[in-house]
Amino acid sequence: MTDYAEEQENELLALESMYPDELTILHPHPTANYKISLVSQAILRSEEEPIKFDLVVKYTEKYPDEMPILEIANDENLSEDRIKELLTVCEEQGNCNLGMPFVFPIISALQDRIEEIVERINEIEILEEEKETREREEAAEKILVGTPVTIETFLKWKEKFDAELYEKRRIEEMEKERLSTKQTGVQYFQANKDESENLDEVLEGEEPGIAVDESLFENMDNLGLEELSDEES
């Protein structure tokens, strides 16, 4: 008759010696419950971290003649599909090794599988990055090449270009006309200054060779010069 308790105890002692830092006893004998922390050697490119999880093992009364209760816990970067894949690995190893202690074969198979998973994830990420790069390059090339020119697209472009050019020239001509008729402050000041200087020359007297009719200045009061002089003072 098989002594299940003894086989379980012996296996647990062996596992503790092989995984002194990774194995933690959650519940002692009988029907021990423990976990083993597993870490992949390969690193996920996107996260720059390995895959980490705990394999929780709970012995049943008749283990190893029947499957123990297994669980994947504390998984930091595993999807549900990946967890199901790992549990399938556990089940396959158990079915192949019923009748003898098989937790160690399960651990070894899981360790190999998580390395494969990391490799697959990294390959998918590389392919996605290459795809995104190609799409960006193709988009840039389309911009450079542009839309193929047909007679229809050229005529539409020509019509739009001519309309924009006409409007631009119309606005420029209007601006030129406005500027040509507008007298700046400097121009206005200069014109008044020239008129004032001409008047001073006339009032100062005769220039050589010019006859001045004094009667022209007899009625200067009528021009309001006195009032203008008072206002300026």
TrEMBL record:
SUPFAM superfamilies: UBC-like. SMART domains: RWD. Residues 10-117 form the RWD domain. InterPro entries: GIR2-like (IPR040213), RWD_dom (IPR006575), UBQ-conjugating_enzyme/RWD (IPR016135). Residues 107-137 form a coiled coil. It comes from the Eukaryota. It holds the Pfam family RWD. GO terms for biological process: cellular response to stress; positive regulation of metabolic process; regulation of gene expression; regulation of protein metabolic process. Keywords: Coiled coil. This is DgyrCDS2496.
